[in-house]
Amino acid sequence: MADSERTSSLIDSRSGFCKSNSTFYSKRNPLNLPPNPSLDVTTFIFSQPHRGTTAFIDAATGHRMSFSDLWRAVDRVTDCLHHEIGIRKGDVVLILSPNSIYIPVVYLSVMSLGAVVTTANPLNTAGEISRQIADSKPTVAFTTPDLAPKLADSGISIVLDGAGSIPGVRVVGILSEMMNKKPSGRRVRERVNQVDTAMLLYSSGTTGPSKGVISSHGNLTAYMARMVARKSMQGQIFLCTVPMFHTFGLLTFAMGTVALGSTVVILRRFELHEMMEAVEKYRATVLALAPPVIVAMINRADLIKAKYDLSSLRTVRCGGAPLSKEVTEGFLEKYPTVDICSGYALTESNGGGASVESVEESRRYGSVGLLSSGVEARIVDQDTGRVMGVNQTGELWLKSPSIAKGYFRNEEATKETFNVEGWLKTGDLCYIDDNGFLFVVDRLKELIKYKGYQVAPAELEALLITHPDILDAAVIPFPDKEAGQYPMAYVARKRESKLSEKQVIDFISKQVAPYKKIRKVAFINSIPKTASGKTLRKDLIKLATSKL
Predict the structure, then answer these.
(1) Domain of 480?
(2) Could you tell me the CATH number of the domain that includes residue 518?
(3) CA 445 to CA 460: how far, in whole Å?
(4) Does residue 265 lie in a domain region?
(5) How far is CA 16 from each of CA 59, 353, 447, rounded to the nearest angstrom?
(6) Which of 40, 98, 108 is nearest to 72 (CA)?
(7) Pair 43, 198: CB distance under 8 Å
(8) Helix 103-112 vs helix 67-80: angle between axes, to the nearest 10 degrees?
(9) Bigger pLDDT: 547 or 303?
(10) H/E element holding 546?
(11) Which residue numbers delimit the AMP-binding enzyme C-terminal domain (predicted)?
(12) Angle made by CA atoms 451, 266, 142, in degrees to the nearest 5
């Protein structure tokens, strides 16, 4: 008997747990991956058969891009990038832009050449973006006239999404002109293999600056294959409210829906009532939301339902944090015809994790669903390294074809997070129950989730201690009904200092993107720490929330 057959015979059909190797296996259908090793993700996406007509709609203007328009635009932009700008396999291309129906064209064009996509949050300051540029060293950047000044000191050549002349910026192309230019007919390009890097997304680090996550064409193709296999998602009208610079928005709404042949209505930025107007106007069937937005929809349900026709809406997909029983039931009470489905993934897993795919599964309250197809999981005791079983809590480890290759130019962090056997250590405290459902108990990683954005405490702490009146500082997540969490700082002042809360908040707000701002400050004699010097955040969280 082959090892795979022997393992399969020992897997419990209810939980997916195999006692012989202490591994949980997905109960979903097997993942069907293409056998061709020389295959870029753009080619895989465009090779999928579908009957879709409209690929993208701009929610604000109503402008539509058909699938034939999309393919034509990708072909022309690819040609310009290669022959006119000189982009080659392995070159890094930065995208700094709000959501746009043209952003998928750029992503697909860059990846078809074997060049590497990296993205930056448009809310980030010029200083934050410059640090990412120094690490990733992009050859060219795509941006808008409004955002281009943030790149003025970078020395990078710019392709603009719209006409404009920006002081200090060398413009080498206008995207609309590239999309309308006839191809040169010279199609000689380098061969792209599935092991080649396709994407370099920056994930918030817990111990310092964010890290570039290296994802291959094979990693992204595995995610696309998983999307294509979900027949229930074909033919839907998705409303994209999440940022396309983030892994979820990029993989699902800029690329995955193209493989499905589904339509995506794109909001340039999130605003609750604009979202509802778009649902009504374009008859959207699927929304993707962070938990705070779901809470807002519950709290304002009477006003929303009185003003907007949401009869087309069938599904809300939620990620970023598990939904409580109270929130799930509250949503279903207010919107009884809409299914709510949670999910779990990381930038490092490229969509591989767990998800809820039916009304029955959504009733497993607090769960983020069953393991995605092609995903294996282990629950590991952090202290002993022992691999545990059903209903036992420990750190979640994941393995799948979509797991990233590691961190860019950061061997130490790669070794800490990705082990030699290919397991990704998620840093989340979880358990899997006897029916195979994954539950996230706590975050071992110290990231703060503000309205779906990740904020690293260490980054803010490093800034705080540069203030001349601050001896030490610690940043913790403070619970908030609207935002989910926001950064709160505990500050140890110098003895004679009269530093105020407002002064601390202003000091940080000038240096970081709006979502990273500290919104609450408490002063303390000293920051509690372990004998080894690690901040005892749990003690501070307990102190901060004791009066709630």
Answers:
(1) 448-545
(2) 3.30.300.30
(3) 15
(4) no
(5) 42, 14, 30
(6) 108
(7) no
(8) 50
(9) 303
(10) none
(11) 459-534
(12) 90
Three-class SS of 68-131? HHHHHHHHHHHHHHHHHHCCCCCCEEEEECCCCCCHHHHHHHHHHCCCEEEEECCCCCHHHHHH
Residue 207 lies in a domain: no
Do the strands 470-480 and 484-493 form a parallel or antiparallel pair, or are they unpaired?
Answer: antiparallel
- Residue 468: inside a domain, yes or no? yes
CA dist 240 and 270 (Å) reads 9
pLDDT tops 80 at residue 381? yes
To the nearest whole number, what is the mean pLDDT of the chain? 90
Paired tokens of 523: 């002063």
**DSSP characters over 313-329:** --EEEE-SSPPPHHHHH
Residue 164 domain-assigned?
no
Give the integer Cα–Cα distance in Å for 489 and 83.
Answer: 51
Using DSSP, state whether 384 is helix, strand or coil. Answer: coil
Q: Which long-range contacts (CB under 8 A, 24 or more apart) does 10-17 make?
A: 12/390, 14/434, 14/435, 14/436, 15/390, 15/432, 15/433, 15/434, 15/435, 15/436, 16/370, 16/371, 16/432, 16/436, 17/389, 17/390, 17/432, 17/436
pLDDT tens for each residue of 400-450: 999 999 999 999 999 999 999 999 999 888 999 999 999 987 766 677 888
| Number of domains the chain is built from | 1
Give the per-residue pLDDT at 312.
Answer: 97
Longest CA–CA span in the chain (Å) reads: 76
Token couple for 164: 């404009």
In this structure, the chain runs to a length of: 548
Cβ neighbour number for residue 189 with a 10 Å cutoff: 16
To which residue do tokens 């949670």 refer? 342
Write out the two tokens for 421: 């056997």
